[in-house]
Each structure stands twice: as structure tokens, then as C-alpha cells.
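During the reporting period the student researcher (J.K.) took over the structure-prediction task from the postdoctoral fellow and processed the backlog of single-chain submissions. One of the processed entries is reproduced below for the supervisory committee.
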Amino acid sequence: MIIYHGSNKVIEKPAFGKGRAHNDFGIGFYCTENEDLAKEWAVSSLSDGFSNCYSLDGELLKILKLNTPEYNILNWMAILVEHRLFSLKNPVARRAKQYLIDNYSINVNAYDVIIGYRADDSYFDYADAFLNNGISVQQLAQAMHLGKLGEQIVIKSQYAFSKLVFKGFSVAEKSEYYVRRKARNDEANMAYLKLLELDDDGLYIRDIMKGGIGSDDARIPRNVPQ
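J.K. obtained the following C-alpha cells:
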């Protein structure tokens, strides 16, 4: 597997145990198989970045693939609320966070590698809206495909880090890739606003909690790759 990590610096030797605890899936090394996406993630409005390239031998790795029909959108959501810092705007959201963790979460630290959606920019706002009872779970599942964000691949275990081999880097120019990133985000937001205008009789988090709906319920959308 060839993967890329977008950063403001060249990283020849990724270090196990480094990084922010409040990333989507906790501490880990966040990558993608799409080099253009890595370059988008690497730049800011003020500076260029770097796309660091690695090979990863995944033959003996235990990989959690969240974007498969084995899992649903709330498995991903539960992992997210365990690690990211959400604004819990009302009592429903505070109860929802614990409900999701209790009924849908997966222990990501039991795996070497995690593959799943990336909740950044507007995508985090969509998750936040669901947690605060603003959109249904069906709308959340549709929103995560807007803008074609792609998947992230997160290196979690020390063993997986040992399987990374640095292959080089290329420069991500802000003049090109920040524009692409902003356009992708704007596209997703415009589609999201249109989505909200449609009639929706889906399940909101308040409904899910009231009904005691669990992970095996057919009304909860299953994950599928983009």
C-alpha cells in the first residue's frame, strides 16, 4: 500500500505515540491513498506544505475498515465523539455522546490501522449538527459523501509504524491546493444546504435514544466506500 501524509514539514521517520489525542481516531499518523488529498490537507492559506510518501506492508496488520457494510455511520460517529471535542449545546447532545459510546463504539486501540471518513472542515460541522439533534442519521450518512472527501488511513500501533517505509516527498503549493481544498469544502456546503431543504422523516439522535436503537437496527445506514 502506498500512502501519503500531508504536513507543513518533511517527515522521514513518523514517531509512534506522537500527535494530538483529539484527532478523529485518537493519537496516530493520519494518511490517505490519494496524494492530491494529502496536498490539500498539507497547505494553509498562508503557506505551502509537503506530501510525504510511504509504503506500508499491511499483510500481517489488524485493520479496522469502517467504510464497509459491516459497520454503520454511528460506529464512526461514536469513535469520533470519544476523541474529538464537540460543542454540546443542549442536554440531548450531552446524553447522545454517552449513548453513542455505550452502544456503537469500537475500541480503535485494538487495531494496527484504522480506515474511515475524515471529519475535518465542514464534515465536522455535519457530525456536530447530528449530535445536537439538528439533522437525522440518514442526512448525516448522505452528508459524509458530499464533496468527495475520501478516506483517511490512520497508523495506530507501534507494530504498524515499524512497517512504514519513507519513499520521498513532494511540495504542495498553496496557490493550487488551498484553492482546491476550499472549493471542495464550498461544494460540500452548497450540497449540504440543498440536502437540508429536502423532506426528511429520518431518525434523529433523540429518536434513537428514546427507541433504544442499537447498532444492528436496519434503519441505521451502513457505511459504504465513496
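The committee noted the following: The chain has a mean pLDDT of 91.
J.K. will present the remaining backlog at the next meeting.
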